[in-house]
Amino acid sequence: MPPGGYKIRVYPHSHDDFEQVSIIHPGTMVHHMRRAWSRNLNEWLPDEHEILTAPAVVISKPPDIHTTQAVTAGERVGLIDFFAPVRWDFSNIDGMVVNRAEYPMLPQQPKSYARVATVYSASDPRAASNRRPT
């Protein structure tokens, strides 16, 4: 392990069709967030690196790139993820969703509306990435 005792490998990713709510318990993590870029450099927002100590909740919205890094040395760190709407791909993996029987499953993956029309309110820092239907 590097100095400080925490792993440095992270898995940045984004979701097009759902929000991710992460509950941190126990431990301390850094939630790294990069807002979607536009073609206009003046609209770019700086990356965010929030230190979160349990109990804590963080919400990742599409199309933001995000990852969470455990920084608690020698202690257990827990992260529980929830998705809204329910992830169709996860719901079709045996054992992935503990209460899968409680949810009616669609026979096929729903149509994605990602990247069709995303409009954030003017007060939202992601408004610079508003996309209109073409």
Question: Topology of this protein?
Answer:
Elements: E1 19-24, E2 28-34, E3 48-53, E4 56-60, E5 65-70, E6 79-84, H1 88-91
Antiparallel strand pairs: 1-4, 1-6, 2-3, 2-5
In what order do the strands lie side by side in the largest sheet?
4-1-6
Q: For the terminal residues, how far apart are their CA atoms? A: 49 Å
Name the beta content range: 25-35%
What is the number of E strands?
6
Q: Which of globular, elongated, flat, extended, rod-shaped describes the shape?
A: flat
Order of helices and strands: EEEEEEH
Q: Uncertain regions: pLDDT < 50 for 5+ in a row?
A: none
Mean of residue pLDDT values: 81
Portion in helices: under 10%
How does the major sheet shape up? 3 strands, antiparallel
Tally of domains: 1
Helices, by number, come to: 1
User: What is Rg?
Assistant: 17 Å
Derived structural class: mainly beta
Describe the structure.
- The structure is a single chain.
- Strands 4-1-6 form a three-stranded antiparallel β-sheet, with no helix packed on it.
- It is flat, with a radius of gyration of 17 Å.
- It has one helix spanning 88-91; strands at residues 19-24, 28-34, 48-53, 56-60, 65-70, 79-84.
- The protein has one domain.
- It is mostly beta strands.
- The model has no long low-confidence stretch (mean pLDDT 81).
